[in-house]
Write a structure and sequence with these properties.
By secondary structure, the chain is an alpha/beta fold. Helices cover about 45% and strands about 15% of the residues. The structure holds NADPH dihydro-nicotinamide-adenine-dinucleotide phosphate. NADPH dihydro-nicotinamide-adenine-dinucleotide phosphate (NDP) binds near residues 16, 38, 93, 141 and 189.
């Protein structure tokens, strides 16, 4: 029996990278997983694989986190199917790095919509359930860019600082409610995240950088650690950076 057996865990951004790996790691601990993102074929493939590999149920709910009604539906479906909402992983995100002088204002808006509003909608939809249950765990995926600002990360960092501020406020407001909050800040992880960058100056800058990134599993293990602690333990902040050699 896993430490999360009979728990229902929602993971946003489960169609790729870190979210996909978190879903596997929580299923490995016995959680039933609810997989949310826009690309439902990818989610269905993951759900099939997870159910084959682990003794859990995996449910797909196609969700655009920028749509409040989608996120409300995600939580409603989870509650209807599993009877509770125990863990909510606010992982969906976009990192459209650009230099301010290049004025990618549409991408700034997209980052605000996904990275901030998407997370707020997750909190809005899941928190009342968790408070009523007097138990729950929200994990917000921020970034080291939510601790430091780099050239071209200004707007992305602004969104990730916002996520971290939200985590800090939640931790303070919810400490007596039974709802735990973890903010996780990864450094560079090898995923599809950088594939959406359109600013040519950023892409040129990347060509000159050498580094060995983390793997999604490195972050998923940290999340699994946080959500499998005894209920009196509140792991509030985890930073995972790659070593540079
Ligand atoms: P990926 O690009 O591999 O995954 C991003 C996920 O977010 C996808 O599953 C995508 O699904 C989902 N997503 C994007 N927009 C939406 C939307 N509107 N609605 C629902 N889902 C959406 O990147 P990562 O796995 O690396 O990123 C996961 C999180 O980790 C992000 O919050 C990112 O900022 C953070 N992070 C990543 C780092 C890295 O170096 N990789 C470092 C620090 C933090 P779909 O397109 O199917 O909707």
């Amino acid at each position: 029996m896993g430490k999360l057996t009979n728990k229902a865990a929602i993971i946003t951004g489960a169609s790729s990278g870190i979210g996909k790996s978190i879903a596997r790691h929580l299923a490995n601990e016995g959680a039933n997983v609810v997989l949310a993102a826009r690309r439902s074929e990818r989610l269905q493939q993951l759900a099939d694989d997870v159910e084959k590999e682990y003794d859990v149920t995996a449910k797909v709910v196609e969700t655009d986190v920028t749509k409040r009604a989608d996120v409300e539906n995600l939580v409603k479906e989870t509650k209807a199917h599993f009877g509770s909402v125990d863990i909510y992983i606010n992982n969906a995100g976009v990192m459209l790095l650009s230099f301010l002088k290049n004025d990618h204002v549409d991408e700034w808006e997209q980052m605000v919509d996904v990275n901030i509003k998407g997370v707020l909608y997750g909190v809005h939809a899941s928190l009342p359930e968790m408070i009523a249950q007097e138990e729950g765990h929200v994990v917000n995926v921020s970034s080291v860019a939510g601790h430091e600002v780099f050239p071209s990360s200004t707007v992305y960092s602004a969104t990730k600082y916002a996520v971290r501020a939200l985590s800090m406020g939640m931790e303070k407001e919810l400490s007596r409610s039974g709802v735990r909050v973890t903010n996780i800040s990864p450094g560079a992880v090898d995923t599809e995240l950088t594939e959406h960058i359109t600013d040519g100056d950023v892409l040129d800058m990347f060509k000159q950088q050498e580094m060995t990134p983390l793997h999604s599993e490195d972050i998923a293990k940290a999340v699994a650690y946080a959500v499998t602690q005894p209920s009196y333990v509140n792991v509030n902040e985890v930073i995972v950076r790659p070593m540079h050699k």
